[in-house]
Amino acid sequence: MDLNADLGESFGSWRMGDDAAMFQFVTSANVACGFHAGDPVTMLDSCRAAFELDVTVGAHVGYRDLAGFGRRSLDMSFDELFGDVLYQLGALDGVAHAVGASVDYVKPHGALYNRTFHDAEQAAAVVAAIHAYDEGLPVLGLPGSELLKHAGDAGHPVFREAFVDRAYLPDGTLLQRSQDGAVLHDVGPIVERAVRLALKGEVVAVDGTVVRVDPDSLCIHGDTPGAVGMAAAVRSGLQDAGVELQPFA
Questions:
Q1: Integer Cα distance of 46 and 28 in angstroms
Q2: Nearest-angstrom CA–CA distance, 36 and 66
Q3: What is the pLDDT of residue 58?
Q4: pLDDT at 70
Q5: Backbone dihedral region of 14: left (phi > 0), alpha (psi from -120 to 50 degrees) or beta?
Q6: Residues 112/62, Cβ–Cβ less than 8 Å
Q7: What is the rounded distance in angstroms from the CA atom of residue 249 to the CA atom of residue 244?
Q8: How far is residue 217 from each of residues 69, 79, 164, measured CA to CA in Å?
Q9: Residue 111 Cα distances to 20, 184, 195, 240, angstroms
Q10: CA 79 to CA 58: how far, in whole Å?
Q11: What is the pLDDT along the chain (249 residues), one digit of tens a residue?
């Protein structure tokens, strides 16, 4: 099982999370590409850390929305979104190449991640940009999403993701962050959820429904308060349960 986190999200003097600590616990890092978060120096630091610790780098592409941290859904034309995703891929891959690393998969961020679950046009634009950049680049996303459908149809390896620190709805989508209880903080139940996801491929939704997700990767949000302790506990819990941790890409 892969364990990933959204990292490299600091911008200038504004610090987000404890990347130096988080890199110690994950096998894959979704690195912000400068549109929803991140800047050239942060991208460089993130790629260096990933290379030194043998952590796989993924391009965490998002809407051009620094003020909203990429969590506001934007109506964009196909060409606008195509260009923005292509720009972000090129930026992060160039930085990664300079330090000996490489971009080995793509995962949309925030509102773009949620939008491409159901919006076929935006999903097609994201996949078209990925395909134009690298026809074999893997794509990480939510099971049943338009994103993974389009990526698979285009010939990209697709991998399913589950979240250990987010509340689920019965249809397998995530409870919106604006709703109470959308983000989980209690480490004990989070570790239990991670182990259940890894061993049984299922998660319990907010109404008690058991949802089948069969994930290839488990995500911990690096910007969540207490994320480092949570990541350490989840990694330890998975290993204690006999789960081997390795990158999916």
A1: 11
A2: 5
A3: 98
A4: 96
A5: beta
A6: yes
A7: 15
A8: 23, 30, 10
A9: 26, 19, 27, 34
A10: 23
A11: 999 999 999 999 999 989 999 999 999 999 999 999 999 999 999 999 999 999 999 999 999 999 999 999 999 999 999 999 999 999 999 999 999 999 999 999 999 999 999 999 999 999 999 999 999 999 999 999 999 999 999 999 999 999 999 999 999 999 988 898 899 989 999 999 999 999 999 999 999 999 999 999 999 987 778 899 999 999 999 999 999 999 999
Angle at which helix 78-98 crosses helix 40-53, to 10 degrees, equals: 60
Q: Which two tokens stand for residue 249?
A: 């890409």
Residues 6+ positions from 100 with CB-CB distance below 8 Å: 51
| Whether 201 contacts 213, CB under 8 Å | yes
If you compute the radius of gyration of the chain from its CA atoms, what whole number of angstroms results?
A: 17
Q: Which of 94, 86, 29 is nearest to 61 (CA)?
A: 86
Distance, in Å, from the CA atom of 18 to the CA atom of 225, rounded to the nearest integer, reads 10
Q: What's the distance, CA 133 to chain centroid?
A: 19
Integer Cα distance of 34 and 61 in angstroms = 8
Match 């949000």 to its residue by tokens: 221
DSSP code for 23? T
Q: 162, 216 in Cβ contact below 8 A?
A: no
β-bridge partners, 158: 139
Q: Which of 173, 189, 186 is nearest to 224 (CA)?
A: 186
How many other C-beta atoms can be found within 10 angstroms of the C-beta atom of residue 94? Answer: 13
Write down how long the chain is: 249
